[in-house]
Amino acid sequence: QKGILGESYFRWRNNNVAARVWLQDNFRQNPPTEINGKIKNGTNRANIEYQKNGEKWHWLVRSAWLNEHILFYDPLREENTNSIANVFIGESELRFLPSKIHHFNVGLNATSQQASVETDNYGVLGDLNAIEASKYESGKPVRNMLAFFVLYKYSSANQKLVWQASVRQELVKNTLIPFVPSTGIELKPLKWIMLKGNVARFFRLPTF
């Protein structure tokens, strides 16, 4: 296993910029009890972030690229397969704090996912036939998502009560998925007692 990490930060007045890069490479050989072969797994990640701070507001814009590839080689079957996944993320978020009691948060997130399999046995389409491949853009599935979210948080002056509520609506391949609301409360009647409660609706997207 080997890897490298790089981070850079810039700041001027009320502006902040951060850039990060992670590169990692793993190699392992399967035990004899499993399928013979060697696996080489690599992960690449990059992120850039911009923040601007005001007296009662905070604006954040960030983007990220995630890449993972798994190379499998079996000398007995002469199989050489390379699985690749790419994710691109862009997000903008605005936080508004008119007072210590009220906190508002609104944001927009755009995500694009892509996957492909290259193999000596089947070619770039893997084991997809022509009909299936036409659905996945020449054997490379792509899924684009757009999400809008809003959050409100209330904190009492004595900090003994905190309540927040949020909503999220997401668009996946031009289709609206179920609306996702959530709410939570935190009570601290005594210094040594804290009560928490959360209610939320979840929706998990299937693998594309």
Structure characterization notes:
With 208 residues, this protein is mainly β. The chain has 1 helix and 11 strands; from the N terminus they run E-E-E-E-E-E-H-E-E-E-E-E. The chain has one helix at 130-135, and strands at residues 2-12, 15-29, 38-53, 57-74, 79-96, 102-119, 142-155, 161-172, 175-176, 180-190, 193-200. Strands 1, 2, 3, 4, 5, 6, 7, 8, 9, 10 and 11 form an 11-stranded antiparallel sheet that branches. Strand 3 and strand 4 (57-74) form a beta hairpin. The longest helix has 6 residues, at 130-135.
Q: What's the SSE blueprint?
A:
Layout: E1 2-12, E2 15-29, E3 38-53, E4 57-74, E5 79-96, E6 102-119, H1 130-135, E7 142-155, E8 161-172, E9 175-176, E10 180-190, E11 193-200
Antiparallel strand pairs: 1-2, 2-3, 3-4, 4-5, 5-6, 6-7, 7-8, 8-9, 8-10, 10-11
Cα separation of the termini: 30 Å
What order do the helices and strands follow?
EEEEEEHEEEEE
Provide the low-confidence segments as ranges: 122-137
SS elements, strand count: 11
Descriptive key words:
208 residues; mainly beta; 11-stranded antiparallel beta sheet; 3% helix; 69% strand
Summarize, please.
This protein has 208 residues and is mostly beta strands. It is built from 1 helix and 11 strands, in the order E-E-E-E-E-E-H-E-E-E-E-E.
